[in-house]
Write a structure and sequence with these properties.
The complex is a heterodimer of chains A (541) and B (298). With 541 residues, chain A is an alpha/beta fold. Chain A has helices at residues 2-20, 72-81, 95-105, 119-127, 135-141, 143-151, 153-159, 188-193, 202-214, 269-283, 297-303, 319-327, 368-376, 381-389, 415-422, 445-458, 474-501, 504-517, 520-540; strands at residues 53-61, 83-91, 111-113, 169-173, 184-187, 255-258, 261-264, 313-315, 331-333, 355-361, 396-398, 404-406, 430-432. In chain A, strand 6 (255-258) and strand 7 form a beta hairpin. Chain B has 15 helices and no strands. Chain B starts with a helix and ends with a helix. Classes of the chains: A alpha/beta (541), B mainly alpha (298).
C-alpha cells in the first residue's frame, strides 16, 4: 500500500513536469525588424538585401530530388536576391507528420515552403499567432502576387480565410483538367472482332461486356478476359461516371450542386436505381472484376500489361498508362452512356480552385517583408513555371516569342524523374493561370491530350456548377471533420456491398436512416450555408 | 541399433511422421514468402501483379538490382544503419546489463523505489511532443545521439536480464568470491558476464533488430538526408501517395515514381533484410534458451 502511495506521488510529479514542458503559441522570441528602418533592405529591385541574410525554411521534397540547396533554381534565386535559404527538406511521405510535430512543439522555421497547410491548419495556427497574416505584406512587397489577385478576385476570395486575413499563399496550375477524371475506356479491337458497334447506351454496353466474357475475344481459348475492372471510389479509376446515366451524376464526395442547391447524391432514388442496375446486370453476371474493390494502383495498372490482352473495359485518365503505348491503339474512350430513361450526363469534380496553403510565414520570422519579396519572385508566371517544372537552360528554353519550350531530355531518363530532380514541382508556390498556358509555357503533351479528350467526350455532358473549394469557419470545419469522414466511409462501404450482394430494395431504407443518424442533414446544411456565403461574396467582388 | 529401433512403438513412429510432416509444412509456410520475394525481385513487376510469378522468376530482369546498386542514398543509408545498430546496441546492452545487475542483487538501497520508478516509465510516457522538446533542448536533434541514447535501457529488457541474474547467479557465488578478495566490479566482469552469454546474446539480437527496423525516431529527429538510416531511405522511395487531383498535370512524375517503386520494391527487401538473415543463425542457439531462462524465477 505504501509503495502505491509513493508511486501515486511520482505520477503527480511526472504530470507537473509534462505540463510545464509545453510551449505552443504565445509570444515569439524574435522581434521582427521594421523594414522601414532596415538599411540593408531594398523595397524594390534586386538584390533584395545588400548584405546576405539567411532564412530558415522547411519544405517537403520528392524522394528522387536532391536537397533544395543543391537545386539549380534556388541557387539562381539566391544569387539574384542575396537572400540565402537554409533548407530543411523532409521527404514528402512523412511531411505532414513532421510539420505537425514542428508546429505543436513550437520548433518553428521562418517559413514553410510548399507547406501543404490544410484549411484547418491555416485557421488554427493563424488564430493563435503561430503564422502571421500576409495581406498587408502582399500589398506592400509583393507586386506580382498583388497584380494577380487584383486581376483574379476569385483567387483572392479562395485564399482569404473567413476572418478576412490571408494566411497562406496560393499554388495553382489552372489547366481545367480536373473536371472529370473518370475516362471510361473500352476495347475497340474486341468490339470489331465480335462485330459489335461502340456502345451508346448502358444496355448496349452491358451486351458488349457479356460478349467479352463469353466469346473469348482474345482468342487464346481461355476464359481469362476481365470485362470491366476499376478501383472502387478512387481518384480517376472509379465508375462514378456511370451513375449519370440514371439522372444524377456522382463524384468522389457524393456532393453536387444544382441551381445553387447542394445535393447529396448517395441518398437519392437515382443512385439506388444505378446500384440495382450495376448489381443485377453486371456483378451478378460476373462482368465486374471482383478485385475492383480491393486492388491498388500498381495491381490495377499491371492488369493491362498481361501477356495476353485481358482487359475489356476500364477507367483511368490516361489510356496508355494502363495498357502501355503498344496496346493503347486497341482501346477507345467511351462518352457518357445513355441510361434506361435516356439520361446522358457525367459528374463534375468539386473544388478545383487554387491550393491555399503552399507558403506561410511564422511568428519567428524577423524579416517578413524580405521573405515576402523573396517569395513574390515566384508569382511571376515565368518563374512559377520554372518552380513547377524546371529551370531555364535545364528543362526549358525561351523561343522567339518568349514562350518556355521544353529542351530535349538527357539520355535514358524519363521526363517525370528528371523533373523531380531539378524543380520542387506541382503544389509549390506559384500560379500559372489558364491564360498563361500557351503564352508563357505549354501544357505537357500528355495534359494537352487529356484536355482534348475532355473537350471531345465529356465536357458537353457536364453541368457547369460544382462545389467550389470554400474556406469554412473553424466551427463549421470542426463539424465537417466530425461527421464527414465516417459518413463517406460508410457510404462507400455500403456502395460496395450493394454492388456485390445486391438486396438494394430490402436494405435501402435502413441505409438512408443510418445516414441521417450519422448527421447527413447537418452536414448538408453546413455545405449549403457555405455555398450561399461564397456566392454572395463572389457577387460583391 | 535394432534394439533402438524396436524400442519405438508404432505409436511413436506415427507420432514422428505426423510431427515431421507438420513441421515441414510450417517451415514451407515461413520460407515461401522469403523465396517469393527473392524471385519477385528478379521478375518483371507487371507479371508479378498479374499472378504469373509464383515459383520461378518470369520475365527475368536485373534492372531492379541495377537501380539499387547505382543509388548512392541506399548505400549511405546502409552505412548509417550499421553504425546506428552497432553503436546503439553497444550502448543499449551495456546500460541494460549494468542496470539489471544491481537490481538483481540483495542489499541495494532503495531497490524497490527504483524498480517502481522504472515500471512507471514502462506504462506512462510523456508522449511525442514533450519527448521531442526534450531531445531538442538536449541539442541532440539531427545527431546520432538522438537515436542511440534515449531508448537505451528499456525497462522490459532490464526486467528480463534482472530475472536471469536472479535465477542463475546465486548469492553464495558472490560470498565465495568476496572471501577470496574479489571486488564487486571484478566479480561482475569476470564471473557474471561470462555466465550470462546467452542473455546478452538475446539482448544484442533484440537491439540490433530494433535498430535495424526502426525508422520512426530517425523520421522525427533527423533532418539531414545523409544521416538517414536505410529503413527511412527505403520508406521515402517506396511509400507512395495515392493518385489524386493534385497530380493532375504532373502525371509524368507520378508514373515515374510508380515505375521506380515497383521495380525495386522486392530487391530492396532482399538487400535490407540480408544482414539480419545472416545474423540470426549465429545467435539462434542462445535465443530460445536465453528468453526462457529469464522468464522463470528458479
Amino acid at each position: 500500500m505504501k509503495s502505491l502511495f509513493k508511486s501515486a506521488g511520482l505520477l503527480v510529479l511526472a504530470g507537473v513536469f509534462a505540463l510545464s514542458g509545453c510551449s505552443g503559441g504565445g509570444e515569439s522570441k524574435n522581434q521582427a525588424v521594421n523594414p522601414d528602418q532596415d538599411a540593408n533592405f531594398n523595397k524594390t529591385g534586386l538584390p533584395i538585401v545588400k548584405e546576405a541574410v539567411t532564412l530558415k525554411m522547411v519544405s517537403p521534397k520528392a524522394a528522387l530530388a536532391p536537397d533544395y540547396s543543391k537545386m539549380e533554381i534556388f541557387k539562381r534565386l539566391e544569387k539574384q536576391t542575396n537572400v540565402k535559404i537554409d533548407w530543411e527538406n523532409i521527404p514528402d511521405a512523412d511531411f505532414a507528420e513532421k510539420k505537425n510535430l514542428l508546429l505543436a512543439s513550437g520548433d518553428l522555421p521562418d517559413a514553410f515552403y510548399g507547406a501543404g497547410f490544410t484549411d484547418y491548419d491555416l485557421i488554427n495556427y493563424g488564430k493563435d499567432g503561430t503564422i502571421i497574416p500576409l495581406e498587408d505584406l502582399i500589398d506592400k512587397y509583393a507586386p506580382n502576387l498583388k497584380a494577380l489577385l487584383d486581376r483574379r478576385p476569385d483567387i483572392k476570395l479562395a485564399i482569404t480565410a473567413p476572418d478576412g486575413h490571408i494566411y497562406g499563399l496560393p499554388s495553382w496550375e489552372e489547366n481545367k483538367l480536373d473536371t472529370n477524371p473518370f475516362f471510361h475506356v473500352i476495347n475497340k479491337n474486341w468490339l470489331d472482332k465480335l462485330g459489335l458497334k461502340v456502345p451508346q447506351t448502358l444496355d448496349e454496353y452491358t451486351q458488349a461486356l457479356i460478349a467479352f466474357k463469353t466469346k473469348d475475344p482474345n482468342g487464346n481459348g481461355k476464359a481469362d478476359e476481365i470485362p470491366l475492372s476499376f478501383m472502387h471510389m478512387q481518384w480517376c479509376s472509379d465508375i462514378a461516371g456511370i451513375f449519370g446515366a440514371f439522372g444524377i451524376p456522382d463524384n468522389l464526395e457524393h456532393r453536387i450542386v444544382r441551381e445553387g442547391k447542394v445535393i447529396f447524391t448517395a441518398s437519392q432514388p437515382q443512385y439506388k436505381e444505378a446500384l440495382k442496375y450495376i448489381h443485377d446486370n453486371w456483378y451478378k453476371q460476373g462482368l465486374i472484376d471482383p478485385e475492383s474493390f480491393t486492388q491498388d494502383a500498381a495491381q490495377y495498372l499491371a492488369k493491362g500489361k498481361t501477356p495476353d490482352e485481358t482487359l475489356g473495359s476500364y477507367v483511368w485518365w490516361e489510356v496508355e498508362e494502363v495498357v502501355g503505348p503498344e496496346r493503347s491503339k486497341d482501346y477507345a474512350l467511351l462518352p457518357p452512356l445513355k441510361g434506361p430513361n435516356g439520361d446522358q450526363m457525367i459528374g463534375r469534380n468539386n473544388g478545383g480552385g487554387p491550393g491555399r496553403g503552399s507558403f506561410v510565414i511564422t511568428k519567428e520570422n524577423r524579416y517578413p517583408a524580405m521573405t515576402m519579396r523573396w517569395i513574390d519572385q515566384q508569382y511571376d508566371p515565368y518563374m512559377a513555371a520554372q518552380i513547377h517544372w524546371g529551370p531555364l537552360d535545364v528543362v526549358f528554353k525561351k523561343d522567339e516569342k518568349g514562350k518556355l519550350v521544353n529542351l530535349a531530355l538527357p539520355k535514358g531518363v524519363s521526363a517525370g524523374e528528371f523533373r523531380q530532380k531539378v524543380a520542387p514541382g506541382t503544389g509549390n508556390p506559384g500560379v500559372i493561370t489558364f491564360d498563361d498556358f500557351g503564352k508563357v509555357v505549354d501544357m505537357e503533351p500528355r495534359a494537352q491530350k487529356r484536355a482534348e479528350y475532355l473537350e471531345k467526350y465529356y465536357t458537353k455532358y457536364m453541368k457547369k456548377e460544382n462545389y467550389p473549394s470554400i474556406f469554412f469557419e473553424p466551427d463549421e470545419l470542426d463539424k465537417i471533420n466530425r461527421i464527414e469522414p465516417e459518413l463517406i466511409k460508410y457510404v462507400n462501404t455500403q456502395r460496395g456491398k450493394f454492388i456485390v450482394d445486391g438486396e438494394v430494395d430490402e436494405k435501402w431504407d435502413s441505409y438512408v436512416k443510418t445516414l441521417e443518424k450519422m448527421g447527413l442533414n447537418e452536414l448538408m446544411e453546413i455545405y449549403q450555408k457555405g455555398l450561399d456565403r461564397y456566392n454572395a461574396n463572389l457577387k460583391n467582388k | 541399433m535394432n534394439q533402438l529401433l524396436k524400442r519405438k512403438s508404432k505409436g511413436d513412429m506415427w507420432f514422428d511422421i505426423v510431427n515431421y510432416f507438420m513441421l515441414t509444412i510450417v517451415m514451407l509456410l515461413v520460407l515461401f514468402p522469403l523465396y517469393f520475394v527473392l524471385i519477385a525481385s528478379l521478375s518483371d513487376p507487371n507479371l508479378i501483379y498479374s499472378g504469373e510469378v509464383w515459383f520461378f522468376p518470369k520475365g527475368f530482369t536485373l534492372d531492379g538490382y541495377g537501380r539499387i546498386f547505382s543509388d548512392s542514398s541506399i548505400w549511405i543509408g546502409y552505412a548509417n544503419s550499421i553504425l546506428y545498430a552497432g553503436l546503439g546496441t553497444l550502448i543499449g546492452v551495456a546500460v541494460t546489463v549494468c542496470a539489471a545487475y544491481p537490481l538483481a542483487r540483495k542489499g541495494l538501497a532503495g531497490k524497490s523505489a527504483i524498480m517502481w520508478f522504472l515500471l512507471i516509465s514502462m506504462f506512462f510516457s510523456g508522449g511525442l511532443i514533450p519527448t521531442y522538446l526534450l531531445i531538442k533542448d538536449l541539442h541532440m536533434l539531427n545527431t546520432i545521439w538522438a537515436l542511440v541514447i534515449p531508448g537505451a535501457g528499456g525497462v522490459f529488457n532490464v526486467i528480463i536480464v534482472r530475472t536471469f541474474f536472479q535465477s542463475t547467479i546465486p548469492d553464495e557465488m558472490w560470498e565465495a568470491a568476496s572471501i577470496d578478495g574479489c571486488s564487486n566490479t571484478r566479480f561482475f566482469w569476470s564471473i557474471v558476464l561470462p555466465l550470462s552469454k546467452s542473455v546478452i546474446a538475446v539482448m544484442v539480437l533484440y537491439h540490433v533488430v530494433g535498430f535495424w527496423n526502426g525508422f520512426f525516431d530517425a523520421l522525427i529527429y533527423l533532418n539531414d538526408e545523409n544521416k538517414y538510416p536505410l529503413q527511412l531511405v527505403l520508406r521515402n522511395i517506396l511509400v507512395q501517395n495515392q493518385a489524386n487531383s493534385g497530380m493532375m498535370i504532373d502525371v509524368e512524375s507520378y508514373a515515374a515514381k510508380m515505375r521506380v517503386t515497383e521495380l525495386i520494391k522486392y530487391g530492396v527487401i532482399m538487400v535490407s533484410s540480408l544482414p539480419l538473415l545472416i545474423l540470426y543463425p549465429f545467435l539462434q542457439k542462445y535465443f530460445v534458451k536465453g528468453v526462457m531462462i529469464g522468464s522463470i524465477k528458479g
